[in-house]
Amino acid sequence: MKPAPFEYFSPDEIDDALELLSRHGEDGKILAGGQSLMPLMNLRLARPRVIVDINRLAALDYISPGAGGELTIGALTRQRSLEQSTVVKDRNPLLAATMPLIGHFQIRNRGTIGGSLAHADPAAELPAVSLALDVEFVVKSAVGERRIPAREFFLGYMTTAIEPTELLTEIRVPGWRPGSRWAIEEVARRRGDFAIVGVVVLLQLSGAGLCEKARLALFGVGDHPVRISRGEEILIGNRPESNIFKEVAKAVAEELDPTSDVHASQEYRKEVGAFLTRKALQTAMARTGEAASQ
Amino acid sequence: MSVKHTVRLTVNQKPYEKLVEARTTLADFLRNELELTGTHLGCEHGVCGACTVLLNGDAVRSCLLLAVQANGAEISTVEGLAQGEELHPLQKAFQDQHALQCGFCTPGFLMTAVAFLKSTPKPTDAEAREAISGNICRCTGYQPIVQAILQAAREGAVEQKRNFSAG
Lengths: 294, 167
Hints:
The complex is a heterodimer. By secondary structure, chain A is an alpha+beta fold.
């Protein structure tokens, strides 16, 4: 037996889960797919006193397409379900392309979208993608429900705006604008590893080919995923091409303040971040005719 | 804290029932409670893949699952592959291709490959490599393992053809 002892609950209803969370507060820890929490518990880096296992909350496992192209995704939806979903593939090519980058298929069979986002590993793909897509997080507690925009969700190292008594229940992904250009690029030591540095790009172009909206999010470069506002500003109003990409990459190198660790130095991360930004912008602009269907 | 939970499940179609603490992982449950020691434990934090089993048909890390979470589930382990003395085609392919040396990682590779070939019966070389990217082997250098999976896939395809022509 590796994890330290804990009290275990596996409610069948969301309300019961919320009641447990409000009763146990800081002592309670939500167990979703377990692909991050269980390693921490096995190594005893985490010793929660109470586990609220939400795997029996079948009501939180869904992918539902809205009339405007948006997707609402239950927090307990397995990453593998999203990877294999034709709805996701048709509606949101960026999200679809992200799924195979997460861990390995055995991990994605258990890992959930909500678990990854709530865990908020700074090197994970989904938090950065959620920033680029401007998703909205629905969290519930025994006293009510609130919605948190992605930009206000990731607060620090593995820290989100979710309160201990709250449960992330739904991820709302806005409709995909047809013709959007996108890319996700990452550098990892081995396939399936957490990224040393990763970049997510999402661009919307006007009829004349000028950039109207830009999202540039990086992961693995600090204690939480970041949007590089200066890079986005450089893109907006301009024709996205190589001289602009160079400027954006420069802004990324200047704005990033990554830490050095066992995997890579600060300088390396800055350089890779700038390089991957250029590469992602090129990849995004090289894509044609891959617009999501409406 | 020593509250125990009843876990009822089937392993390789055989039903079991045990009373265990919530913190017992499925891997330890299989090995210590059911004495099915074919499932191996390497890193115990989800990296090495040695403990891979099938949970209702899906390949999962049994070290990252609590036994209580598998209550009511159907588990398949490496012990269920061979039929008596007759090796599973994948085991035979591993033997033919020398896809194991010390054998520690083999149960995890086999269960990973079983699940993979079920969803991808005719994989490319690249797909086979991707499929085993979550399993670590320190002896073989992986090449024979890839060859074994491709061999099993070829033989599986032959069997299917036979079935089709018979039908």
